[in-house]
């Protein structure tokens, strides 16, 4: 299977918007969001990914077919360990491609593309996501990551450094 990750143009925003509806439907078992009067969930932050330079949208294709998306942000750090970190804000792989290793491959490509400190957060109730991200990040980092909690987030957060960014012995300096 050939995996391709690319940034969609503004003209392709509707494609990501459509996939976002599938993602939010899947995610609705973990959050209590309702659809609007048009039967849509909507995503109020989507436009930011084409207007704010620290927001990065990606579409994911497998063998030329749409398979998912990722939304990545660079966020100013609140602590002195680093000036900013990268965060996967949303990540979606269509059910057809799950259990095929596509999510892991896509995550690895994103981690390699954006080198630096990363955080990936899951809701406490989203056990499948926790299992996926712990396994994926552990494999990517050779188990060199930490799991933290924050007062403003209801679930675990994995924090690590992209392997191509610094030698692994530098990890403890940033975490």
Automatic annotation (TrEMBL):
UniProt GO molecular function: acyltransferase activity, transferring groups other than amino-acyl groups
Protein name in the entry: GNAT family N-acetyltransferase
PROSITE patterns: GNAT (PS51186)
Family annotation (InterPro entries): Acyl_CoA_acyltransferase, GNAT_dom
Classification lineage: Bacteria, Bacillati, Bacillota, Bacilli, Bacillales
Pfam families on file: Acetyltransf_1
N-acetyltransferase domain ranges (all copies): 17-167
